[in-house]
Amino acid sequence: MLNNYLLSIIIFLPLIAALVVAFIPGKFKGAFKYIALGIASLQVLIAIVLLSGYDASYAGVNHLNEFQFLENVPWFDIHLSSFGHISADYIVGVDGLNMSMVLLSVVVMLIGTIASWNIKTREKGYFSLLLLLNGAILGCFLSLDFLLFYLFFEFMLLPMYFLIGLWGGVRREYASIKFFLYTLFGSIFILIAMIALNLSVVDPAATAVEAGLVQEGQVVSNEIVEQVQQSLAAGQLSRENLVHTFNMVYMTDPANYIPGSIMDYKVMKVILGQEGRLLMFLLLFIGFAIKIPVVPLHTWLPDAHVEAPTPISVILAGVLLKIGGYGLMRTAFMIIPDGVGYYGWMMGLLGVISIIYGALNALGSKDLKKMIAYSSVSHMGFVLLGLASGTTEGVSGAVYQMVSHGVISAALFLIVGVIYERGHDRIIQNYSGLINKMPRYTIFTVIFFFASLGLPGFSGFIAEIFVLLGSFNSSVVNGFLPKWMTIIAALGLIFSAAYYLWTIQRMFFGKFFTKIEVSNDELTDLNTREYVMLVPLVILALLMGVFPSFLLDMINNSIAVFTDVIGQYGDIIQQN
Amino acid sequence: MQEKLTAITGSMGYFLPEIAIVISLVLLLIAGLFNAGRLNKLYQVLALAFLAVTMVLVVGQWQEVGDLVRPLPLFNNMVQLTSVSVFWKMICVLGAFITVAMGFGNQDFKDKSSEYYLLAFGVLLGAHLLVMANNLLTIYLSIELLSITAYILTSFSFNAASKEAAVKYLLFGAAASGVMLFGMSWLYALTGTLTIDDVQFLDGLIKANALPFTLAAIMTLAGLLYKISAAPMHIWAPDVYTAAPTPVAAYFSIVPKLAGIGILMKWMMVINLFGSSPVNWTIVLATIAMISIGIGNFSALWQNNVKRLLAYSSIAHSGFLVAGLVAYSETAYKAILFYSAIYLLMNMAAFLFVNHAEKEWGYTKVEDYKGLINVQPLLGVALVIVMIALTGLPPTGGFTGKFLIFSALWDSYVESGNDWSLYLLIFGLMNTVIALFYYLKLPYYIIFKNAEQKPQKQLIFSLQNFIGFFLVVMILLSFFKPDSLMRIINSVSFAF
């Protein structure tokens, strides 16, 4: 019984807990972090149950009945006379595209909650916002209805805005408003595309009920759905009976598009000199590219990271950036696959630029946290490159990179947090020879730096190799990306080796000294709480590096469908 | 003569809410003769009771018009009873009710209390007549009724600023209605009738020369734009909103504006002449909408006074309502009704809380709200939600309202290839980001800044705040369950 509502529970548990925390009197402030921790642990347990019940042989992606743990409840249905109905549903479900993201987010959220242990000001606000953020993130990954997705996507902004703006560093207010405005600007683009999609796509089952083909409450058979789709294509349905839907899975089916609408497959509508579908792809791409972030839309990220408190940086890098990549896959790539071939070259180029530009910036950063932030830009560039290739290897690599980067960057920001907490300074040059003072800390740092630069045996290696393979193959398989992009992207690996090794050399090796006012006994080695956070992440990064099949088996079927859909349109474009 | 008399007596039955308003007005006038000053409470209770009665009558009318197929002409077609007009009347009475409740318990108007309420009823009567009007003369008269009472209400702060604002309002208003009257006289000259849904009127306009028709229609439009404070006729709004008592400002931002939108919707249908108009009105309206949204949002960026900020925000909202007129379809008109209802909720909620802060703690500037969340968390959170709703972000009804308007614009672009709809859509969406910048100002001060002097912790449970919180809940509900509001709107029919 409870099994049917697992996804709702995992989303709404933190949201309800946030309300509870908000209404508990302030004198029990010691309890807030335990509530948050309890919820995050419960979510991990639920995720394990999900994983054990998850059957990787179902692909999902563009078939609603292949989604698992699916909950599909009507949300609202507005009838607008001659325009037809606008309906939204509460649909959550998992497939190969979002299962790994859910696992990643519950783990990172748990780590982020433990990292919040040292928050000493306004605990009530902090933990209720953290829980709100938690619920919104999971809602975002699990929603299969565009409006629901958009709701959670926007809803993430507010807690994040306050978390950075209230508990952040010196320039926190500037950083938080910049983050908010950038992301909101991006979500406006997504909104335009969402409205266009809603105007163009019908829910065949609900339309069948409206058109009187089936009685209300009856199960709509596949034949009826096909019949509706045929009469839709023939223009036989009255406009008044059309039920416009936000269902992202219905949006992947060309048969559900209204002939003559903005997003129609057959007769491309030209808007502002560009074909409507392609323009919408571009809008969705810009919206999510800000979130990933892709150069040149990345400038909010270094600011937000540098100013955010450690746990928020962990969550931001570990999970929030992935919503950009995941959103791109679920919406732009799957709903408008014809755009992938058209913009593939541009996206690949932007990915390569992000890789190189991010790496060069990291190389030039004086602030350790800024360096890690730019390395995120660089590594997320691989996600975009992999996706743009449209090949199975590339897309698998992109998903793998998202999970791997989620784990590794979370750990990297924790590592920055450790030194900042002790020395109250993050400038690389101000430290030297830390290995003498903090040997265990140095070991963990070195492990994660190597994991991040793509050392074989760690998850990052698998991901980047797959991406490079996929993008190299792309010129043969579908012709989206030229070979030189792969070669330049590979250069990024060398740069990242450079900045990581240089940092290790400067900060950790050599004779111990600091240029900051800090007493010797303040620079203590890792404590138990920090071990609790870092050790699981090391294990995860290693496991994913040594046994890639665990994650790949989970996503393979879905990625195969994903690339098939893109490939079909790639062929069409190559023929033209 | 006999015929006319029977028409008038026959119409009376459909005129009950308006009759109730007139009777209330007269009763308040009589009550005001007795020992003013000390009977404030009584007047307030009376006003609320009268409004409740009016509301009941309007709702009764709503059920009555349910089976109306065609508009019901009253008083020789001077006014018409339609489902749309009853919808607007419900909105207006609700707005008036909240306004009166907002001033409940206050002693601001001293011995002028009864006058205040009877003037408020005057505005309401004007609004009722305006949304039902079917004749240029009725339009003009009801706008005058609405305006003249509004001029006096503006001066009810009894200070120099409020008198100045009232005079400004009066001068602008006089000029605008003068222009409108001039336009109407041309329309009469062109058609020979004042009844706007008359065949003769439409025929005359179709046959008329394009130039005089355009000029006359634009001049008439100017008077209506003035009432909804849309650019370029918006200049009075910031001064009036700032100087007038806060409940009055709230009242002006809802009742005259939405009644104006109501008649504008009808007016656009008339001057579109069923598509045979020589003028492309969408360009005119799209320009007006863009300027309103632009001026409203950009000017609001620099405001420190909360009421002034809300004034500019209401100008921008007028722009969005006019954007619905640009889309010009049944869908768009229903989207306007939806948006208006949500606008009532969110603007009233904003003014209720602002009024509370002004009365209790003397807050007028944005900076005054510093650190409110630490002292009054509930009020702080409610204000943040209202501001998010005004910006148009989920999960609030403000988002759903904007979403429907934008959908209508998209649809109009796709269906009729109207490029201006697309430009307006893009412009409106981009403006949401700008709007966020100033709407976030208040939450920013409420949450991010620490107050030097904190207002005392005190109970905030008053009738006003109760209504405010109720409205906030409705704002959230209208996002999660928009179908219930839409079902009400769907019983309205338009003659497209």
Automatic annotation (TrEMBL), chain A:
BP terms from Gene Ontology: ATP synthesis coupled electron transport; electron transport coupled proton transport
GO molecular function: NADH dehydrogenase (ubiquinone) activity; NADH dehydrogenase activity; ubiquinone binding
Keyword tRNA-binding: no
Keywords: Membrane, Transmembrane, Transmembrane helix
A single Gene Ontology CC term: endomembrane system
Pfam families: Proton_antipo_M
Entry-linked InterPro entries: NADH_Q_OxRdtase_chainM/4, NADH_UbQ_OxRdtase, ND/Mrp_TM
Membrane topology: Multi-pass membrane protein
Transmembrane regions: 6-24, 31-54, 99-119, 126-144, 150-167, 179-197, 278-301, 313-336, 342-360, 372-392, 398-420, 441-472, 484-502, 531-552
Keyword 4Fe-4S attached: no
Family indicated by similarity: Belongs to the complex I subunit 4 family.
UniProt name for this protein: NADH-quinone oxidoreductase subunit M
Organism: Fulvivirga sediminis
From TrEMBL, chain B:
InterPro entries: NADH-Q_OxRdtase_suN/2, ND/Mrp_TM
Keyword Translocase among record annotations: yes
Subunit-level organization: NDH-1 is composed of 14 different subunits. Subunits NuoA, H, J, K, L, M, N constitute the membrane sector of the complex.
Record's subcellular location: Cell membrane; Endomembrane system; Membrane
Organism: Fulvivirga sediminis
Transmembrane regions listed in the UniProt entry: 12-35, 42-62, 82-104, 116-133, 139-158, 170-190, 210-228, 248-269, 281-302, 309-329, 335-354, 375-393, 420-440, 460-480
Catalytic activity: a quinone + NADH + 5 H(+)(in) = a quinol + NAD(+) + 4 H(+)(out)
Every NADH:quinone oxidoreductase/Mrp antiporter transmembrane domain range: 133-413
Its biological purpose: NDH-1 shuttles electrons from NADH, via FMN and iron-sulfur (Fe-S) centers, to quinones in the respiratory chain. The immediate electron acceptor for the enzyme in this species is believed to be a menaquinone. Couples the redox reaction to proton translocation (for every two electrons transferred, four hydrogen ions are translocated across the cytoplasmic membrane), and thus conserves the redox energy in a proton gradient.
Membrane topology note: Multi-pass membrane protein
A GO term for molecular function: NADH dehydrogenase (ubiquinone) activity
Lineage summary: Bacteria, Pseudomonadati, Bacteroidota, Cytophagia, Cytophagales
Keyword Transmembrane helix in record: yes
Name of the protein this chain belongs to: NADH-quinone oxidoreductase subunit N
GO BP term, pick one: ATP synthesis coupled electron transport
Family: Belongs to the complex I subunit 2 family.
CC terms in the record's Gene Ontology section: endomembrane system; plasma membrane
Alphabetized UniProt keyword annotations: Cell membrane, Membrane, NAD, Quinone, Translocase, Transmembrane, Transmembrane helix, Transport
A Pfam family: Proton_antipo_M
Gene (UniProt): nuoN
EC number of the protein: 7.1.1.-
